[in-house]
Amino acid sequence: MKSFQYLKKIDRTIDYDNNDRALFYYLMRVEPTVALCIACGACTATCSAGNFSTLDLHKIMLSIRRGEKVYIAKEITQCVLCGKCQLVCPKNVNTRGVILQIMSFLQSSQL
Ligand code: SF4
Ligand code: SF4
Questions:
Q1: Are 41 and 61 in contact (CB under 8 A)?
Q2: Tally of structural domains, the chain
Q3: DSSP of 34-86, one letter per residue?
Q4: What's the CA-to-centroid distance between 58 and ligand 2, angstroms?
Q5: What is the pTM of this model?
Q6: What tens digit of pLDDT does each residue of 29-66 get?
Q7: More exposed terminus of the chain, fewer Cβ within 10 Å: N or C?
Q8: What is the DSSP letter of 19?
């Protein structure tokens, strides 16, 4: 006989008030085009590295606002800085510049 039970739902609520948004504020200062992102996903769709790895720039752009630095630090190293994402971005986000600044921020914060 099949047994039924309730599963605890994983909480996906984003606590914007208590997130560490230091990276977002840093990027707003050094690469303000980061604020133009509308999370459309075009960058991820065109990313060559994304075809061979878990790199997802669209998710990284969302994670910047959510303060998920550990996830970003893990994924960003897979970028080969080709700049294709920048060519397709409808909002002209300087994605390559954003990525380079993220790398520099993470290096200085020893994450
Ligand atoms: S293509 Fe541009 S606007 Fe769209 S998710 Fe990527 S960075 Fe954001
Ligand atoms: S610069 Fe990085 S994120 Fe953008 S398309 Fe190239 S490998 Fe992908």
A1: no
A2: 1
A3: GGG-----HHHHH-HHHHHSS--HHHHHHHHHHT-HHHHHHHHTT-----HHH
A4: 11
A5: 0.87
A6: 999 999 999 999 999 999 999 999 999 999 999 999 99
A7: N
A8: S
The CATH number assigned to the domain holding 81 equals: 1.10.1060.10
Q: Residue 66 domain-assigned?
A: yes
What is the Å distance from ligand 2's center to 9 Cα?
34
∠ CA 45-51-54 to the nearest 5 degrees?
95
The pLDDT of residue 1 is 65
57 alpha carbon – ligand 1 mean position (Å): 8
When pLDDT is averaged across residues 6-32 and rounded to a whole number, the result is 85
**Residue 109 structure tokens:** 């914060």
Cα separation, 6 vs 2, whole angstroms: 13
Relative to the CA of 41, which ligand 1 atom is closest?
A: 5
Give ligand 2 pocket residues (Cβ under 6 A). Answer: 47-50, 57, 79-85, 95-96
